[in-house]
Amino acid sequence: MNYETLIIRYGEIALKGKNKKSFYDTLYDRVKEQLKGLSALTIKKHFDHIEVQLNGLDYRTVADRIKHVFGIQSIRAAIIVDNELTSLQEGSLKVVKDIEAEVKTFKISARRKNKKYPMNSKELNHALGSYVLQNTENITVDVHHPDVNIQVEVLEESTRIYGKVIKGAGGLPVGSAGKVMLMLSGGIDSPVAAYMMMKRGATIEAIHFHSPPYTNDRAKQKVIDLAATLKKFGGRLKLHVVPFTNAQIAIRDSMPDNYRMTIMRRMMLRIAERLAIKYDALAIATGESLGQVASQTLESMNTINEVTNFPVLRPLVSTDKVDIIDIAKKIGTYDISIRPYEDCCTLFLPRAPKTKPKREQANRFEKSLAIEALIEEALAGVETIDIGKEAEAIEDLL
Ligand code: ATP
Ligand code: MG
């Protein structure tokens, strides 16, 4: 069956006190963005919830688009009936029948916003509950621990009866926390890191280092596809593709084998910082997880981090690989990440990278590297791709 309206409720935003309005406005923008192109809908912003009137569209289609929007606690589908008792009874029955196969027990919770309504909540619970019981076979009432709580909200002119509940994505709306430059490789971890940052409200722009002809277009396409998948959590995003071949060649040819990886990372971070400054980001984020590989020991992080005083956020620092993989599967990036194209780092990796690199050593070696020139050259060749722009342009035409 279909419903008439979706009621979107927020979670943590409710705790924001004086700042609540700006968080809520941002959430509203994100919801509208995801529903762009569905012109049949009417979207209304109420004091404590957003309502999406479906006007005939399937609630599942609409809910599928917004269930990824951070800041949402729950999306509840409701039917709307007039305030006659018989309509409330029929409506409650209809909603219970829709979910009857999934539950064994139910309860009705009526609330009257219209205090002039001739029955109070208790009387309504009873009248509706017993009507549903008489007209169903496999379901009973449990007022304490029901499998489903059917909420009935009597408003001035009409009544909402809530059925299906879709769990929201939680977190805070993207755009409520400022911008982060996220280093996006083609691997499993960094897309998950992007998701985690967006979940806390950060707007992200992605940076990808690639090294043609050592890395090919399919490796780049993989990163574009990852970014496109991330778009459903936070709307359009930019991907800056940085040409990194010459920097890598210079590092390979003039830096000691066991420090190459450390120095390559330092170069990446320097370039990321420049892009962060250019595009007004306040932090850099990576998919690093403590101890996962040689470049992710504390010694490595310490030595690599030296080149920037921007915060380097590592949302996965304490997450196990198996758990990262679970999230990657859940958010739809895993299958893209495991496509077998090499990224720039694997190609130039030394046989035995130093697991405990020292700042002093790295600084000493780098004296013979044309750091500034290499950075300038890479920045001059950055290609910025606006992920999702074309898709949106097509939707606008529909
Ligand atoms: P991932 O799965 O994210 O690639 P990883 O376990 O392979 O991570 P590393 O290769 O050491 O680990 O990379 C650590 C982090 O450095 C990545 O999570 C990412 O944020 C960043 N990074 C690595 N390679 C690139 C790249 N080619 N472009 C942009 N960022 C990169
Ligand atoms: Mg990697």
What does this structure look like?
Helix content is 41%, strand content 21%. It is built from 15 helices and 14 strands. The strands form 2 sheets. An 8-stranded mixed sheet has the order 2-3-1-4-8-7-5-6. The chain has a 6-stranded mixed sheet with strand order 13-12-9-10-11-14, with helices on both faces. The two termini are 27 Å apart. The relative contact order is 0.12. The structure holds adenosine-5'-triphosphate and magnesium ion. Adenosine-5'-triphosphate (ATP) binds next to α5, β10 and α12.
Strand content: 15-25%
For the largest beta sheet, what order do the strands appear in spatially? Answer: 2-3-1-4-8-7-5-6
Q: Catalogue the unreliable spans.
A: none
Provide the succession of SSEs: EHEEHEHEHEEEEHEHEHHEHEHHHHHEH
Major β-sheet profile? 8 strands, mixed
Structural class computed from helices and strand pairing: alpha/beta
The rounded distance between the terminal residues' Cα atoms is 27 Å
* Alpha-carbon Rg, integer: 27 Å
Any ligands, ions or cofactors bound here, and which?
A: adenosine-5'-triphosphate, magnesium ion
Question: Helical stretch count?
Answer: 15
Q: What is the approximate shape? A: elongated
Secondary structure: helix percent: 40-55%
